[in-house]
Amino acid sequence: ARIPDIPSPDVSGGPADAAEAAGALPPAATEAERRAAVAVNLPPPSEPAPYRIGVSDVLLLSTNTAGATLDDVPTLLSAQSSRQGYIVQDDGAIAIPDVGRIAVSGLTLEDAEAEIFQALVAQRLDPSFSLEVAEFRSQTVSVGGAVQQPNVQPISLKPLFLSSALQIAGGVRAPDLDYAIVRLFRDGEVFEAPLTAIYADGGLNDVLLRDGDAIFVDADYDVTQARAFFEEQLRLRDAELREREFAFRQRQADIDEIRFGVTVAQFELQKAQLRQQINQMRVQTATFNLQRQTEIRAANADARAAFQDRVRLGAVARDYVYVTGEVRAPRRTALPFESRSNLADVLFEENQNGITIFSADYGEIYVLRQGVNGAPVGAVTAYHLNAANMANLTTATMFEMRPNDIVFVAEQPITAWARVVNQLVPNLISQATSLTNAAGG
């Protein structure tokens, strides 16, 4: 824009004189000068990489079916002249009848061939096939602005460079190519360079494009317009992909219905046959399980009986605790297998051989144990339980028995005196009788 002239005042010595003293204003920069001042700001160079399959790509599989019928090869793989495409769905897989779903998104063609080969071999199908990409839809670049044909270009097996994308769009359409600016929108960043810099030095400034890039050629120096074009292209691309995917799925459904001739009646028949096979397998499995359980129970019963006989005959090594003193009958108590026994278990057994209530002294219960805490050979340690206080019986439930322990229950003092009397009275009576008989004689 041109700065308007400053009117000269009528009075000398006023602002005009001051302007003349300060010197003339510098000329305004032109639009061309501002464009020429744009520095080259492009992404760093990168090496081309093998194409990786993505969502919405269409793959073609073909096999050698000479001399084969539709019953010999998978139906969708059996056409040699009319090949069927497989779209890479949103989960990154393609669905092949008789084979299943195969994940191919993110793989190169070589890796995808290896995955499909393994899937065919696993299903015992002929693994001879060829794989190619029929339509490149997953990776695109949009080109707009001052070009002959703004469009969305797919990235294919051949790497796509910035200069090639501009040529495919019909070239730059601008009054003066020296002032055209190319802007590249990538991952939220804006890169730019004059058009002349991209083709200068033998293409040293050329850029390898990748998925999602948006190119805008500016001949009017309007960044807002470039961003608007970028957003519009993204919306158009999304709508187009959705429309293509819907149309492709509809067409694939029609082809499947015509080619396979799968009717509802056939499908129901197959389901009925499958249900019958499943029921037969369930009956066979139930019968087998019942027979197996019967055999296991019989084997367990035999093993249990044999073990009980070995225990009864003393063929199984056991650990015992010996109980004596004021009990109904001195006995030995076997310690349980794979478990523990305490003093209360021994004193209050269920076989009615426990403590004698009328003669036992509950305050004098002892457990005799050999070899405690490194004691010398033959040393005996005696543990005393005073159960005269019933609260102390809880200690018996915590005292663990060891092999060869001896439990001794002492007699009451009155019981000892009574036994002495019982032993003396018969002798006194016998002596008195003898004296009486002798005196009478």
Describe, in short, the structure shown:
The protein is of the alpha+beta class and 441 residues long. 37% of the residues lie in helices and 19% in strands. The protein has helices at 15-22, 31-36, 109-122, 162-168, 195-199, 223-260, 264-312, 343-347, 393-396, 413-440; strands at 58-62, 84-87, 93-96, 100-103, 130-135, 140-145, 151-154, 181-186, 189-194, 214-218, 320-325, 331-334, 360-370, 380-385, 406-411.
Describe this entry's structure for a reader.
The protein has 441 residues and is of the alpha+beta class. It contains 10 helices and 15 strands. The strands form 4 sheets. The protein has a 5-stranded mixed β-sheet, sandwiched between helices. Strands 12-11-15-13-14 form a 5-stranded mixed β-sheet. It has a 3-stranded antiparallel β-sheet with strand order 2-1-5.
SSE topology sketch:
Layout: H1 15-22, H2 31-36, E1 58-62, E2 84-87, E3 93-96, E4 100-103, H3 109-122, E5 130-135, E6 140-145, E7 151-154, H4 162-168, E8 181-186, E9 189-194, H5 195-199, E10 214-218, H6 223-260, H7 264-312, E11 320-325, E12 331-334, H8 343-347, E13 360-370, E14 380-385, H9 393-396, E15 406-411, H10 413-440
Parallel strand pairs: 6-10, 11-15
Antiparallel strand pairs: 1-2, 1-5, 3-4, 6-7, 8-9, 8-10, 11-12, 13-14, 13-15
| Helix content class | 25-40%
- Oligomerization state of this entry? single chain
Distance between the termini: 172 Å
**Count of individual beta strands:** 15
The SSE order reads HHEEEEHEEEHEEHEHHEEHEEHEH
Content-based structural category:
alpha+beta
**What is the approximate shape?**
elongated
Largest sheet: 5 strands, mixed
Q: Overall pLDDT, averaged? A: 79
User: β content, as a range?
Assistant: 15-25%
Over all CA atoms, what is the radius of gyration?
52 Å
User: Can you list the strand order of the major beta sheet?
Assistant: 7-6-10-8-9
Compute the number of helices: 10
The unreliable regions are 1-36, 66-70, 75-82
